[in-house]
Amino acid sequence: MSLAKINNKSFTANLYLDGRPVVLNQQRLQQVLRDKRITLGEKLEAEVGLTSLRTSSFITLADHEDDDPLVLKFVPQGDYYAVHLVHPGAFDGAQMFIEDKTHNLLASTSAPQHYFSISTYGAPKASLNDIASGPALIELNSEPQDKPLYRQLSDGMSLFLDTDPNVTGHNAFNSKPARLVIKVVK
Q: Which domain of life is it from (predicted)?
């Protein structure tokens, strides 16, 4: 059955990895500045990051489990989804996309349209019907190449890439795709 027949309903959801919510780096940096016990160096680094549109646009993980998750709107586009941010400010309505050269997952209001698919146990191309009953483990795949997202730690920040971050070339160090928990909001 083609997903085009069942992927006809938009929905909003939150994503989590290892119990921490997926957020916009802008949110993470603003949260860092609210912490009263940060060093001057950490404060300055967060302030510099907030002035950079690119640094603020990374899709990352919150530093704490109780931080507010990013609200994502999954809009069906045939067999895939365009994923937009529901976030007040400069990134409201921005879409998630994979940066060509770095393979990083970012948010942008001006990038070309990018699509994702959801896969879950038993459904390699899942739709809302496969995940609506409650939290579910998923993999988010960059389309049309069907590349899963991987998590990479860089300078204490989690990045999501659509390529394995193993730079050694040895298959013993290959990473596993990020298994996210999705919670449908509506």
A: Bacteria
Phi, psi of 42 (to 5 degrees): -65, -40
SS3 assignment, position 32? helix
Q: What is the pTM of this model?
A: 0.91
**Residue 139: CA count within 13 A, CB half-sphere:** 21
> Strands (DSSP E) along 38-179, which ranges?
59-61, 71-77, 80-86, 95-98, 105-108, 115-120, 123-126, 136-143, 147-148, 150-154, 157-161
Task: State pLDDT tens for residues 147-172.
Answer: 999 999 988 899 999 999 988 888 88
CA distance 174 to 38: 35
Q: What is the CATH number of domain 3-184?
A: 2.80.10.50
Measured between alpha carbons, how far apart are the two ends of the chain, in Å?
Answer: 24
Backbone phi, psi, residue 96, to 5°: -80, 140
Q: Which residue has the tokens 């190449």?
A: 145
Q: In 3-state terms, what secondary structure has residue 181?
A: strand
